[in-house]
Amino acid sequence: MQANNLEFLSNGLLGAALGAGLAIIGAGIGIGMIGRGATEGMARQPEIAGNIQTAGIILAALIEGATFFALIVCLLINFTVGGAIG
Questions:
Q1: Cα dihedral 3→9→12→13 (10° resolution)
Q2: Tens digits of per-residue pLDDT, 64-81?
Q3: Closest Cα partner for 82 from 16, 36, 30, 2?
Q4: pTM (2 d.p.)
Q5: What is the pLDDT of residue 79?
């Protein structure tokens, strides 16, 4: 019975690691898409480049905030499960 509990807890560590990795990958893709869209918009309408740049920075900050929240949740899972194993 004890071995099954440790296996379940180690799966929790694996899940926390995968969740953190997916959060970072998703944020990178999202910020890359914002950058691509912003540069295309500025190339098509240079007169509103300042507005596009401001909106892009705000959107990137929102994505970063969600990413930090996901990483904190993964770290809390990691520390909780890691403390139960060791």
A1: -100
A2: 999 999 999 988 888 887
A3: 16
A4: 0.78
A5: 83
